[in-house]
Write a structure and sequence with these properties.
Helix 4 runs antiparallel to helix 6 and helix 8 crosses helix 9. Strand 16 and strand 17 form a beta hairpin. The chain is an alpha+beta fold. A three-stranded antiparallel beta sheet has the order 3-2-5, with no helix packed on it. Strands 8-7-10 form a three-stranded antiparallel beta sheet, with no helix packed on it. The protein is elongated and about 160 Å long. The protein is built from ten helices and 18 strands. It has a domain of about 100 residues: Tetrahydropterin Synthase, Chain A (2-Layer Sandwich), CATH 3.30.479.
Length: about 375
Amino acid sequence: MKKVIINENQKGFLFHNGRFVKLLGAGKYPLFGAREIEIVSLKEPLISAKCELDTLLANSEVAKLTSVCEVTDQQLALHYTSGKFDGVLRRGKYAFWSVLERHEYQLVDISTPEVAEDVPQYIFAKLPTTVYTKVEVAQYQKARLYFDQKLIRILDAGTYYFWKNNIRVDVNLVDTRLTRMEITGQEIMTQDKVGLRINFVCNYRITDYVKILTEIDDYAGQMHVAAQLALRDFVGKQKLDDILANKDELSRYAFERLKAKENEFFVEIIDAGVKDIILPGEIRDIMNTVLVAEKRAQANVITRREEVASTRSLLNTAKLMEENPTLYRLKELEHIERICENVGNINLNGNGDVLSQLMGLMHPGTAS
């Protein structure tokens, strides 16, 4: 006769002729005739390979020792075992042994993608990604949230979770940082028919993240066109010399034109200005030639001015020495000193004083 042993952490299902008879606890049981015993672990869900779950639960002894959870359509059940999250249960009927562990369930409505506030976010790291959608919005972003292509709300920076169901979830991220628009090499004709190429830059920030999408088509393109028109309007009415002399005025005009359209474009214009004005090659060469000529003329004027000043200084010195013999004598001594600094040897005789002999060297025939 065959015997079956059931341990303390196990239960046994007794079957006779394939029909469930009763629940068996720990112990040793003989098998004879058409009797069968199916052994199951108390740490595993209540499942039998020989009969349906409802058949087992119909037994009062089994029902008393188990915890049952039934999940309907459009629901999920968050399963906690002894206070710890153990997994998610989808549609169906589940039973767990409550002999060794405590089982709790949190039924979640997934008919809408919105996750209820009482669902802790940490469990999503343990859930399969097939049941939820994760959305991350950076610190410098906003996000437009859509359910079935219908705008729901604006999401601030953070991490968001949405249940997956038959409702489509879309998120459109928008950068909230300062955005730059550049116009490069815009060709514009001046009033005096000179073709210029202008580089223009504008910094702006979006102010209404909903209306900029729903009430205006391609706001960036329209801002680009508005800036082009402002530049053309100003440059086309000015001559080249006036434009070059009033570059800041051109920047100010374009900025004010764009600023006036802030409400229309749902943006805030922070600043705007002309980076470069590029002249045609021929005009640039002519202007360089003119500039060189002007600088040379200025240099000549300065040179002549210095020469006049130097001559006037010499004239004043000569007049002073003519009127003052002592000053003239001091000037001679100054020159003698300079000569002596550059002469190696000077031979003097004993006739006359030293100064007279030195003067005789400078002015032959005057020494006595």
